[in-house]
Amino acid sequence: MVTPKAKLAELDPVWDRILREARLAIAEEPLLGGMVHSTILHHPSMERALAYRIAMKLASDEMSGQILREICDEAFAADPAILASARADIVAINERDPACHRFLQPLLYFKGFQAVQAYRVGHWLWNEGRRDLSYFFQMRSSEVFGVDIHPAAKIGKGIMIDHAHSIVVGETAVVGDNVSMLHSVTLGGTGKEEEDRHPKIGNGVLIGAGAKVLGNIEIGHCSRIAAGSVVLHPVPACKTVAGVPARIVGEAGCDQPALRMDQILGM
Protein backbone atom coordinates (compact mmCIF):
# COMPACT_ATOMS: atom_id res chain seq x y z
CA MET A 1 0.00 0.00 0.00
CA VAL A 2 1.35 3.43 -0.97
CA THR A 3 1.19 5.83 1.97
CA PRO A 4 0.27 9.54 1.59
CA LYS A 5 3.83 10.42 2.53
CA ALA A 6 5.22 8.21 -0.23
CA LYS A 7 2.82 9.77 -2.72
CA LEU A 8 3.99 13.24 -1.69
CA ALA A 9 7.63 12.25 -2.16
CA GLU A 10 6.84 10.89 -5.60
CA LEU A 11 5.02 14.07 -6.59
CA ASP A 12 7.60 16.46 -5.14
CA PRO A 13 10.98 14.74 -4.80
CA VAL A 14 12.83 18.04 -4.32
CA TRP A 15 10.77 18.99 -1.28
CA ASP A 16 10.93 15.45 0.11
CA ARG A 17 14.73 15.50 -0.10
CA ILE A 18 14.85 18.93 1.58
CA LEU A 19 12.75 17.58 4.46
CA ARG A 20 15.04 14.58 4.91
CA GLU A 21 18.13 16.77 4.80
CA ALA A 22 16.58 19.20 7.31
CA ARG A 23 16.09 16.42 9.84
CA LEU A 24 19.64 15.24 9.26
CA ALA A 25 20.98 18.78 9.71
CA ILE A 26 19.30 19.04 13.12
CA ALA A 27 20.66 15.66 14.16
CA GLU A 28 24.17 16.76 13.20
CA GLU A 29 23.90 20.28 14.66
CA PRO A 30 21.11 20.67 17.25
CA LEU A 31 21.84 24.39 17.63
CA LEU A 32 20.32 24.88 14.17
CA GLY A 33 17.08 23.24 15.27
CA GLY A 34 15.10 26.44 15.76
CA MET A 35 16.04 27.92 12.40
CA VAL A 36 15.54 24.69 10.48
CA HIS A 37 12.17 24.04 12.08
CA SER A 38 10.89 27.56 11.47
CA THR A 39 12.22 27.70 7.91
CA ILE A 40 11.61 24.12 6.70
CA LEU A 41 9.94 21.59 8.94
CA HIS A 42 7.16 23.88 10.18
CA HIS A 43 5.78 24.22 6.63
CA PRO A 44 3.53 21.78 4.74
CA SER A 45 5.04 22.49 1.31
CA MET A 46 8.00 24.01 -0.45
CA GLU A 47 5.79 26.90 -1.52
CA ARG A 48 5.13 27.92 2.06
CA ALA A 49 8.74 27.38 3.11
CA LEU A 50 10.09 29.49 0.25
CA ALA A 51 7.56 32.26 0.92
CA TYR A 52 8.67 32.29 4.56
CA ARG A 53 12.36 32.38 3.66
CA ILE A 54 11.99 35.23 1.17
CA ALA A 55 9.84 37.20 3.59
CA MET A 56 12.23 36.80 6.52
CA LYS A 57 15.15 37.90 4.37
CA LEU A 58 13.45 40.96 2.87
CA ALA A 59 11.43 42.11 5.89
CA SER A 60 12.23 45.53 7.29
CA ASP A 61 10.64 48.28 9.36
CA GLU A 62 9.01 49.44 6.13
CA MET A 63 7.41 46.10 5.21
CA SER A 64 6.66 43.31 7.66
CA GLY A 65 7.49 39.69 7.09
CA GLN A 66 3.81 38.75 7.31
CA ILE A 67 2.84 41.05 4.45
CA LEU A 68 5.73 39.79 2.33
CA ARG A 69 4.70 36.18 2.98
CA GLU A 70 1.19 36.95 1.81
CA ILE A 71 2.56 38.54 -1.37
CA CYS A 72 4.73 35.49 -2.06
CA ASP A 73 1.84 33.12 -1.35
CA GLU A 74 -0.30 35.06 -3.80
CA ALA A 75 2.38 34.94 -6.49
CA PHE A 76 2.98 31.20 -6.07
CA ALA A 77 -0.73 30.40 -6.17
CA ALA A 78 -1.25 32.50 -9.29
CA ASP A 79 1.79 31.24 -11.21
CA PRO A 80 2.93 27.65 -10.48
CA ALA A 81 5.81 28.14 -12.94
CA ILE A 82 7.61 30.19 -10.26
CA LEU A 83 7.88 27.13 -8.03
CA ALA A 84 8.81 24.85 -10.92
CA SER A 85 11.66 27.24 -11.71
CA ALA A 86 12.74 27.33 -8.05
CA ARG A 87 12.98 23.55 -7.95
CA ALA A 88 14.97 23.55 -11.19
CA ASP A 89 17.30 26.17 -9.70
CA ILE A 90 17.95 24.03 -6.61
CA VAL A 91 18.77 20.99 -8.74
CA ALA A 92 21.03 23.10 -10.97
CA ILE A 93 22.97 24.52 -8.02
CA ASN A 94 23.42 21.10 -6.47
CA GLU A 95 24.69 19.67 -9.76
CA ARG A 96 27.05 22.52 -10.70
CA ASP A 97 28.37 23.99 -7.45
CA PRO A 98 30.97 21.75 -5.79
CA ALA A 99 30.31 23.60 -2.52
CA CYS A 100 26.66 22.50 -2.53
CA HIS A 101 26.18 19.07 -0.97
CA ARG A 102 22.48 19.22 -0.09
CA PHE A 103 19.30 20.59 -1.66
CA LEU A 104 18.78 22.25 1.70
CA GLN A 105 21.73 24.61 1.26
CA PRO A 106 20.38 26.97 -1.42
CA LEU A 107 17.11 27.46 0.42
CA LEU A 108 18.81 28.17 3.76
CA TYR A 109 22.15 29.74 2.92
CA PHE A 110 22.81 30.69 -0.72
CA LYS A 111 21.99 34.30 -1.48
CA GLY A 112 22.19 33.71 -5.23
CA PHE A 113 19.28 31.31 -5.06
CA GLN A 114 17.35 33.47 -2.61
CA ALA A 115 17.84 36.60 -4.71
CA VAL A 116 16.62 34.88 -7.88
CA GLN A 117 13.48 33.64 -6.10
CA ALA A 118 12.79 37.14 -4.75
CA TYR A 119 13.23 38.42 -8.31
CA ARG A 120 10.68 35.87 -9.56
CA VAL A 121 8.06 37.26 -7.16
CA GLY A 122 8.98 40.82 -8.20
CA HIS A 123 8.68 39.83 -11.86
CA TRP A 124 5.20 38.45 -11.24
CA LEU A 125 4.23 41.71 -9.54
CA TRP A 126 5.63 43.66 -12.50
CA ASN A 127 3.56 41.66 -14.96
CA GLU A 128 0.49 42.22 -12.78
CA GLY A 129 0.99 45.97 -13.06
CA ARG A 130 2.02 46.34 -9.43
CA ARG A 131 5.16 48.22 -10.35
CA ASP A 132 5.92 50.06 -7.10
CA LEU A 133 5.73 46.86 -5.08
CA SER A 134 7.98 45.11 -7.60
CA TYR A 135 10.51 47.92 -7.19
CA PHE A 136 10.38 47.34 -3.43
CA PHE A 137 11.38 43.70 -3.97
CA GLN A 138 14.22 44.84 -6.24
CA MET A 139 15.43 47.40 -3.72
CA ARG A 140 15.40 45.04 -0.77
CA SER A 141 17.10 42.26 -2.74
CA SER A 142 19.85 44.68 -3.70
CA GLU A 143 20.25 45.82 -0.10
CA VAL A 144 20.14 42.35 1.45
CA PHE A 145 21.83 40.16 -1.16
CA GLY A 146 23.92 42.59 -3.22
CA VAL A 147 22.04 41.35 -6.30
CA ASP A 148 20.22 43.96 -8.40
CA ILE A 149 17.83 42.38 -10.93
CA HIS A 150 15.25 44.63 -12.51
CA PRO A 151 11.79 43.06 -12.10
CA ALA A 152 11.04 43.49 -15.81
CA ALA A 153 14.01 41.32 -16.85
CA LYS A 154 13.16 37.82 -18.09
CA ILE A 155 15.06 34.94 -16.51
CA GLY A 156 14.59 31.24 -17.26
CA LYS A 157 14.87 28.19 -15.03
CA GLY A 158 17.83 26.09 -13.92
CA ILE A 159 19.79 29.23 -12.99
CA MET A 160 22.93 29.15 -10.86
CA ILE A 161 24.52 32.39 -9.65
CA ASP A 162 27.61 31.33 -7.70
CA HIS A 163 28.59 33.60 -4.77
CA ALA A 164 26.21 36.20 -6.27
CA HIS A 165 28.01 39.31 -5.08
CA SER A 166 27.49 42.48 -7.17
CA ILE A 167 25.23 40.97 -9.83
CA VAL A 168 23.38 43.49 -12.03
CA VAL A 169 20.71 42.55 -14.58
CA GLY A 170 19.06 45.36 -16.51
CA GLU A 171 15.42 46.00 -17.33
CA THR A 172 15.29 44.58 -20.87
CA ALA A 173 17.76 41.73 -20.31
CA VAL A 174 16.72 38.17 -21.14
CA VAL A 175 18.44 35.14 -19.60
CA GLY A 176 17.63 31.69 -20.96
CA ASP A 177 17.39 28.34 -19.22
CA ASN A 178 20.31 26.52 -17.56
CA VAL A 179 22.57 29.57 -17.40
CA SER A 180 25.44 29.76 -14.91
CA MET A 181 27.12 32.98 -13.86
CA LEU A 182 29.59 33.93 -11.18
CA HIS A 183 29.96 37.00 -9.01
CA SER A 184 30.26 40.58 -10.28
CA VAL A 185 28.54 39.90 -13.60
CA THR A 186 26.75 42.83 -15.27
CA LEU A 187 24.12 42.49 -17.97
CA GLY A 188 23.85 46.19 -18.70
CA GLY A 189 23.25 48.92 -21.23
CA THR A 190 25.67 51.22 -22.99
CA GLY A 191 24.06 54.62 -22.51
CA LYS A 192 20.84 56.50 -21.86
CA GLU A 193 18.64 54.86 -24.49
CA GLU A 194 15.27 53.84 -23.10
CA GLU A 195 14.21 51.10 -25.49
CA ASP A 196 15.44 47.51 -25.71
CA ARG A 197 19.01 48.02 -24.49
CA HIS A 198 20.23 44.97 -22.57
CA PRO A 199 21.75 41.59 -23.50
CA LYS A 200 19.88 38.48 -24.54
CA ILE A 201 21.62 35.44 -23.04
CA GLY A 202 20.89 32.09 -24.68
CA ASN A 203 20.35 28.73 -23.01
CA GLY A 204 23.28 26.95 -21.41
CA VAL A 205 25.62 29.95 -21.34
CA LEU A 206 28.47 30.20 -18.81
CA ILE A 207 29.41 33.75 -17.73
CA GLY A 208 32.65 34.03 -15.74
CA ALA A 209 33.31 36.21 -12.72
CA GLY A 210 33.46 39.93 -13.36
CA ALA A 211 32.28 39.72 -16.96
CA LYS A 212 30.34 42.69 -18.36
CA VAL A 213 27.92 42.10 -21.23
CA LEU A 214 26.68 45.45 -22.50
CA GLY A 215 24.03 46.51 -24.97
CA ASN A 216 21.21 44.85 -26.87
CA ILE A 217 23.33 41.98 -28.13
CA GLU A 218 22.68 38.26 -28.40
CA ILE A 219 24.88 35.72 -26.66
CA GLY A 220 24.35 32.43 -28.46
CA HIS A 221 23.29 29.20 -26.83
CA CYS A 222 25.97 27.20 -24.98
CA SER A 223 28.63 29.86 -25.37
CA ARG A 224 31.23 30.75 -22.77
CA ILE A 225 32.32 34.21 -21.57
CA ALA A 226 35.67 34.28 -19.80
CA ALA A 227 36.11 35.97 -16.43
CA GLY A 228 36.75 39.70 -16.61
CA SER A 229 35.66 40.06 -20.23
CA VAL A 230 33.79 43.07 -21.59
CA VAL A 231 31.42 41.86 -24.30
CA LEU A 232 30.17 44.56 -26.69
CA HIS A 233 29.24 42.52 -29.76
CA PRO A 234 27.05 39.46 -30.40
CA VAL A 235 28.55 36.06 -29.67
CA PRO A 236 27.74 33.06 -31.90
CA ALA A 237 26.49 29.85 -30.32
CA CYS A 238 29.03 27.42 -28.88
CA LYS A 239 31.96 29.85 -28.85
CA THR A 240 34.31 31.12 -26.15
CA VAL A 241 35.03 34.85 -25.93
CA ALA A 242 37.62 36.57 -23.75
CA GLY A 243 39.30 39.92 -23.34
CA VAL A 244 38.62 43.66 -23.17
CA PRO A 245 36.90 44.08 -25.51
CA ALA A 246 35.99 40.42 -25.84
CA ARG A 247 36.78 38.48 -29.02
CA ILE A 248 36.25 34.89 -30.05
CA VAL A 249 39.16 32.75 -28.85
CA GLY A 250 37.82 29.30 -29.67
CA GLU A 251 34.98 26.84 -29.34
CA ALA A 252 32.98 26.49 -26.13
CA GLY A 253 34.96 23.38 -25.19
CA CYS A 254 31.90 21.19 -24.56
CA ASP A 255 28.24 21.01 -25.51
CA GLN A 256 26.99 22.37 -22.16
CA PRO A 257 29.43 24.93 -20.68
CA ALA A 258 26.98 26.10 -18.01
CA LEU A 259 26.68 22.55 -16.70
CA ARG A 260 30.37 21.68 -16.89
CA MET A 261 31.48 24.98 -15.27
CA ASP A 262 34.89 24.62 -16.97
CA GLN A 263 36.42 28.11 -17.03
CA ILE A 264 39.92 27.19 -18.19
CA LEU A 265 40.77 28.44 -21.67
CA GLY A 266 42.64 25.90 -23.76
CA MET A 267 45.88 27.10 -25.31
From TrEMBL:
Biological process according to GO: cysteine biosynthetic process from serine
GO molecular function: serine O-acetyltransferase activity
The enzyme's E.C. designation: 2.3.1.30
Gene3D superfamilies given in the database record: Hexapeptide repeat proteins, serine acetyltransferase, domain 1
Known pathway: Amino-acid biosynthesis; L-cysteine biosynthesis; L-cysteine from L-serine: step 1/2
Alphabetical keyword list: Acyltransferase, Amino-acid biosynthesis, Repeat, Transferase
Pfam families to which the protein is assigned, alphabetical: Hexapep (PF00132), SATase_N (PF06426)
Reactions accelerated catalytically: L-serine + acetyl-CoA = O-acetyl-L-serine + CoA
InterPro entries: Hexapep, Hexapep_transf_CS, LbH_SAT, Ser_AcTrfase_N, Ser_AcTrfase_N_sf, Ser_O-AcTrfase, Serine_acetyltransferase, Trimer_LpxA-like_sf
Similarity section: Belongs to the transferase hexapeptide repeat family.
PANTHER family tied to this protein: SERINE ACETYLTRANSFERASE
Protein known as: Serine acetyltransferase
Organism of origin: Pseudooceanicola algae
